[in-house]
């Protein structure tokens, strides 16, 4: 009996340590992950796969492919999924809080004080964009090596890149993923390589009943919230409904949600065009997911309470979708035919990342030879000196500041 109690206590201590580790690591990433959703995937890959080995390359690529397929902030959903893998639903929530709330708090302060400052031309901000160039390039190299080992998958990646660059619409990305999955199935369904690594399946400790409830809640809120809004005429319910709908229907991540939010809130008078653009600049200046721009809009409209409500509303669909799909996901990826589909999808993800590396990462960062030089140095420090990402962030900010002073 005593041994049983001791084992239970040890298990509780181990669980608490795991949860604390998830929160600490995700918070550090939330404080240092500059550069937008594509760069965040690079930070996650470096921290969770290469350094901590919480999951292998294939499992990470599969998780990224799933989250690219789902509506919402893909990088945040990947972080939530990794937290779930480590410690269930609580681990996923802690991973979300750690990664998200540093930028939420910063943007709440920006909503109150940004009119005093002008960071749109700050040198350190440009330096952080150069950090994103290095981070994304490093992530693409690692993922391409593992996910496109043969000519067929390299070809899929190239065509995914081309279509994503030339057809920049909301639904291009999901169309490319669906088509690549079909091509992967047609090419690899009979290949023996499809059977590899099935024993290395990732375990997500959530029940299918819990997943079903999450999916029902996701769709239920889409239907119920507009009705409650009309019945109550509450400003907070209206705010929650608007952001929940935005978070539910956006494919492509934060860069897509920003113009959607502009159309949702500027014409209705919730905030002016100038306030929106100021908040956009602030969002680019802080680490973490771009979806936290919701905190700024909510705070401009209804103070810090509005900022928190908007944040919860815009991220809630992403959390529910991750909880609702992961318990079924592992069984699917273990199926040989399904695995052939993900071989095609994973190759497409590499192409999509390359497209995003060009636009917006490269096009918004590299304007002159000095920009390319700084980005190259940062990439060298990251890829070959193996310096941690937070040092690269500091070096990039310093490099951008020096550039603005002397160039």
From TrEMBL:
Membrane topology listed for this record: Multi-pass membrane protein
Main location: membrane
Ranges annotated as spanning the membrane: 90-117, 124-144, 156-188, 209-228, 282-302, 308-329, 341-360, 366-385
Keywords, sorted A to Z: Cell membrane, Membrane, Transmembrane, Transmembrane helix
Alphabetized Pfam families for the sequence: Chromate_transp
InterPro entries hit by this protein: Chr_Tranpt_l_chain, Chromate_transpt
Annotated localization: Cell membrane
Entry keyword annotation includes Ribosomal protein: no
NCBIfam families cross-referenced by the UniProt entry: 2A51
Family the entry assigns: Belongs to the chromate ion transporter (CHR) (TC 2.A.51) family.
Protein name (database record): Chromate transporter
Organism (species): Sporosarcina contaminans
Classification lineage: Bacteria, Bacillati, Bacillota, Bacilli, Bacillales
């Amino acid at each position: 009996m005593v041994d049983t109690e001791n084992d239970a206590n040890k298990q509780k201590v181990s669980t608490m340590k795991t949860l604390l580790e998830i929160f600490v690591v995700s918070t550090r990433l939330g404080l240092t992950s500059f550069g937008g959703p594509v760069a965040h995937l690079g930070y996650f890959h470096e921290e969770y796969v290469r350094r901590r080995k919480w999951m292998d390359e294939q499992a990470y690529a599969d998780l990224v492919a799933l989250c690219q397929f789902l509506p919402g902030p893909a990088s945040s959903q990947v972080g939530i999924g990794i937290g779930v893998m480590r410690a269930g639903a609580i681990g996923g929530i802690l991973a979300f809080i750690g990664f998200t709330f540093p930028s939420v708090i910063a943007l709440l302060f920006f909503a109150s004080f940004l009119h005093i400052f002008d960071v749109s031309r700050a040198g350190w901000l440009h330096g952080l964009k150069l950090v994103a160039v290095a981070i994304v390039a490093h992530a693409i190299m690692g993922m391409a090596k593992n996910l496109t080992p043969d000519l067929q998958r390299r070809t899929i990646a190239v065509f995914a890149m081309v279509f994503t660059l030339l057809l920049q619409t909301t639904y291009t990305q999901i169309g490319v993923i669906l088509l690549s999955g079909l091509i992967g199935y047609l090419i690899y369904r009979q290949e023996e390589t499809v059977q590899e690594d099935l024993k290395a399946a990732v375990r997500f400790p959530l029940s299918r009943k819990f997943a079903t409830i999450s999916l029902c809640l996701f769709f239920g809120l889409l239907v119920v919230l507009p009705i409650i809004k009309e019945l109550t005429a509450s400003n907070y319910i209206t705010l929650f409904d608007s952001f929940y709908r935005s978070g539910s229907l956006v494919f492509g991540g934060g860069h897509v949600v920003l113009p959607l939010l502009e159309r949702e809130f500027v014409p209705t008078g919730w905030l002016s065009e100038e306030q929106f653009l100021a908040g956009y600049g602030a969002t680019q200046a802080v680490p973490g997911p771009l979806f936290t721009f919701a905190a700024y809009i909510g705070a401009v409209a209804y103070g810090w309470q509005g900022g928190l409500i908007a944040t919860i509303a815009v991220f809630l669909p992403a959390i529910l979708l991750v909880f609702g799909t992961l318990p079924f996901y592992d069984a699917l990826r273990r199926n040989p035919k399904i695995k052939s589909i993900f071989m095609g999808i994973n190759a497409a993800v590499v192409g999509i990342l390359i497209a995003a590396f060009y636009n917006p990462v490269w096009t918004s960062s590299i304007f002159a030879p000095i920009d390319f030089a700084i980005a190259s140095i940062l990439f060298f420090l990251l890829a070959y000196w193996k310096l941690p990402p937070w040092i690269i962030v500091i070096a990039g900010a310093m490099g951008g500041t020096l550039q603005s002073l002397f160039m």
